[in-house]
Amino acid sequence: MTRIKIKFNSPVILSFLAVCFVATVAGVLTGSVSTQLLFMTYHSPLTDPMTYVRFFTHVFGHADWNHFFGNATYILILGPLLEEKYGSKIVVEIMVISALATGIANYLFFPNVALCGASGIVFALILLASFTGFKDGEIPLTFILVAVIFIGQQIYEGIAIDNNISNLSHIIGGVIGSIVGFILNRKSI
Question: How high is the pLDDT of residue 189?
C-alpha cells in the first residue's frame, strides 16, 4: 500500500498566509491594536520609521476573519499554480511590489484612510493567472475579459459605492499582475 504524504508545495504562498493568519489572530486578541501598529498603513509622519515598514507589512493584517478568508481563498487557489509556473522568487517580487505600490498610493491619495489586507496581491495574482495562455504574440481573450470585469468593477465601485474597500489597491494590484504577466510570458516566446 502506497503511503500518501502531505507536501509543502508552495512555500511562498503558504508562508505568506501563515504570517497573515498570525497577524489576524494578533489583531483579534489585541482588539486591533497590533494591526494598527504593525499591519495597517495610514498617513503617519514620514519621520516615523514604522511608516516605511507598514508600506510593506499592511498586506499581512486583515480587518476580520471574513476579510482574511476571502483573500486567503483566492491566494490559495491561484498562488500555488503561479509559484509553480514562475517560481518562488517571482511570486515574492510580485507581493513586495504590490505591497509597496498600494501602501504608497494609499499614503499619498487617501491621507485619512487606513489600509490593511492582501487584496492588492490577490488582484495581481488574478491578472497574472489570466496571462498564462499568452503565446505567439497573442493576448488571450480571457485576460481581456478578466481585466475588463475585475478592473471595471473596481472603477465602478470606487466611483459609485461607498463600501470601505480600497478599490485603488485592487486596480494597482491588477495592473502589476498584468505588467508582470506580459513581461514574463513575452520572454518565453
Answer: 47
